[in-house]
Design a protein that fits this description.
Layout: H1 4-26, H2 55-64, E1 69-76, E2 79-85, E3 91-96, E4 103-105, H3 114-123, E5 127-135, E6 138-144, E7 150-155, E8 162-165
Antiparallel strand pairs: 1-2, 2-3, 3-4, 5-6, 6-7, 7-8
Amino acid sequence: MQGRMPMIALVVALSGALFGAGGAAWAQDTGTTTRQTTTTTITRSFQKPSGALGEDAIKGDVAQAGYKEVKGLEFKNGVWVAKARGGNDNWVRIKVAPVTGKVYQADAPSKLNEDEVKAKLSAQGFQNIDDVDFDDGLWKASAQDSNGHDVDLLVDPDDGSVVAKSQD
């Protein structure tokens, strides 16, 4: 057993030397430059506007729109969102305007196209309108309001009215 100890010590020493040499090879300058980048994210939040309807009123509006049952109702990103069961017993995702209580079904088509939405928003005083996209039953857009503030908008797909507007 005593003869083995020097052998084990030699293996450990050689392993360390080889690993250290390998580590040194890894640490060699490859001539490349590492650049660090910084990304700035501006977060605008949608808050309940003054005159926003409460949860009970929203549930009433959803029932008036012909839905039998609502689950998971919460205020999120400027509108009320939930799943609702319609007359055909199928569950669908819906969004509800916070002030008017109008219900938007996520898979419903838009009556307006992108150019019409831009024109409607421009007529309401918004400028530099871009990133217009139809998603889950509402149009989304980025713009500047009449005071020059950047805003994110949710827009009604039927008439182009603003359903929700972000606040800095």
